[in-house]
Amino acid sequence: MMPGIKDILMILPEIVVAVAACVLLMVEFLCRKGERTIIGVFAILTASVAAAISLYLMTTDYMGGVAFSGMFILDGYSTMFKLIFYLATILSIVISFYYTREEGIKGGEYYTLMLFSLCGMMVMASGRDLLTIYIGLELMSLPVYVLTGFLDRDKRSVEGAMKYVILGGFSSGILLYGISIIYGVTGSTELTAIARAFGEAGGLTPVVGLAIVGLICGFGFKVAAVPFHAWTPDVYEGAPTPVTAFMSVGPKAAAFAIFLRVFTEGLLPVYEHWQVLVAVVAVATMFYGNIVAIVQTNIKRMLAYSSIGHAGYALLGLLPATNDGVASVIYYMFVYLFMNMGAFAVVVFMRRASQSGELIEDYRGLAKNHRALSLAMLVFMFSLAGIPPTAGFVGKFYIFMALVDKGMVELALIAVVASAVAAYFYIRVVLLMYMKEPVRTHLTAESFGVGLVIAVGIIGAIVLGVYPGYLIDLIQRVSALV
Hints:
With 482 residues, this protein is mostly helical. It has 20 helices and 2 strands. The mean pLDDT is 89.
C-alpha cells in the first residue's frame, strides 16, 4: 500500500533531517576544507526546523496516530524524546566548532554523520514495530561508529572505534536473534500484536525467555548497562570529546526510549518474568559504574563510568511499568542532557594547546584562576551526584518515588546507597578545584559557543532542580504508555 499524505506528514521531521543530511553530504564536496564549518551551521538549522515541526505536530490531530500500517507512531512519548535528541545534537555541534578547529578536523561529514544518527534516533523513538526499531537503531549506530574513530591519528580513537564496531555488531546480532524468536512465537513484530499474543498464551516458555534475554542484551549494550558495558570507557576516552558528549546523551536516550516502549507495551503481559532480570542488571550497573569511577584519573573515563551508573538509575524507572515510572525516565533523560553535556563542554573548554583537559589533575586549583568555570563544573558535579537543589537530585527522587509507589522500597534504598557511593568521586573533582593549589596556569578556550553550551547546562541543571513542576506535569500529561 502506498503511503498517504497523512503518513508523510507524520514522519515529516524525519524526512527533513534525512534529506538535509544527504544534501549536506553532497554540498560538503563543493566546499573548501577551511569553509566546512558552514555544514555544521546548516546542521543546526536542520535540527531546529525538525524540532519546530515536531512541536507543531503536537498541536494537530495527527498526535496519537499511527502510520505505515502501524509501524510508526506519533505520540507525546516519542516527541518528548525527540526534543532530547534535537537538543543533544545542537549542543554537540556547537561545542564541535571549537574542538574541530583545535584538533585540525577539516571534514564536513563530521556534522552530517550527526544528522544521520539523529534521524536514526527519531525513528527509534517512534517505532512501534521491532523491525522499525531495529532499522532506526542501526541508522543511529553506524554514524557514531565512524565519529568515534574520527581522530585517526590518535591510537585511543582508533582502538575505541574498533571495539565499538565489533561489540556493537555482536549486540545487534543478539538483538536480531531475540526479535526473530518473538516473531516465530507470536507471528508478528508489531508491539500491540505481540502483547496480545503473550496475553493469550498466559505463560512463559523457555524460548520466550531466551528472546527476552536477547532483547535485554541488545538494548543493554546501547544504554551501557552491566555486563554489556565493556566498550564504554575506551570509546568515551578515545572519541572526540563532543562526540563523547553526543553519544552519552542522544543514543543513550534513544536506547531508553525503545527499552521502555518495547517492555511496557509489547512485553507487559510477561512483566513478572523480566522484572527480576532487569532489576539485577540495574543494581549491578549502578554499583559497578559508581565504584570503578572512583579510581579513574582521566575525567572522560570517569564520566564514562558515571554514565554507566546513571544508566542503572534510569533502568529502575522501567521496573514499576507504570506511567509515573516512564515519566520519571523521560525527565531523568532531560536532566542528564543538561548536566552531562555541560560537564563535557567544560572538558572541551579546558582543551587548549598542550593542555588536553582530560586528566583530573588538570583541574587542580582551577578555582584560583577561573572562578566562573570552576563554579560551572561544581554545579555539574553536584547535579550528577544528585545533591539538592540541582536537577540531578529531582531526577533521582522522581525515579525513587515511582519505585516506592509500586512497593519496591528495597530497590529505592539500594539506589540511595549507590548514590552515596557516587558522591565521592564527583566531590573529589570539586575538592581538587577549590582545596588544592594550582601547579601551573590553566589554559582555557576562547570560544563563545562552548561558553554558551556551559551556560545552557547550568541553567538547565538549576532551573529543573528548583522549578521541576512544569516539565514533570507536561511529561506526565503527554507521555503515557501503560
